[in-house]
Amino acid sequence: MVHKAFIIREQNPIEIMLYAIYLYLLGLSLRSVSKALLMLKVRRNHEAIRKWIHRIAVYTSEMLMQMKAETVVVDETAINIGGKRYWL
Questions:
Q1: What is the rounded CA–CA span in Å between residue 61 and residue 66?
Q2: Do 41 and 29 meet the contact criterion of CB atoms below 8 Å apart?
Q3: Hey, CA dihedral for 78, 79, 81, 83, is it positive or negative?
Q4: Rounded average pLDDT over 3-32
Q5: Spatial separation of the C-alpha atoms in residues 49 and 56, rounded to whole Å
Q6: How far is 51 from 49, CA to CA, in rounded Å?
Q7: How many C-beta neighbours within 10 Å does residue 72 have?
Q8: DSSP string spanning the chain?
Q9: Per-residue pLDDT reduced to its tens digit, 30-52
Q10: β-strand pairing of 84-87 with 78-81
Q11: Does residue 20 contact residue 11 with C-beta atoms inside 8 Å?
């Protein structure tokens, strides 16, 4: 679920915004995402899409900082350098 603060004062449906972010995360450039949205008859420039991505990144980072980890995974990797063992 997307936080209310993320969708206040937006001209586009949240589904369009999330689809644009999804396309960007798949590897499309901001300009390519903008062109892809034209197929849905949504006209937004690459700067607007960059702002959407930035806004959701700030929100998700705040949300992740509030969560506490219940499990910690430790990788016991050792390397030998000059005959000495070092743990990473």
A1: 9
A2: no
A3: positive
A4: 81
A5: 11
A6: 5
A7: 5
A8: ---HHHHTT-SS-HHHHHHHHHHHHTT--HHHHHHHHHTTT----HHHHHHHHHHHHHHHHHHHHHS--S-------EEEETTEEEE-
A9: 999 999 999 999 999 999 999 99
A10: antiparallel
A11: no
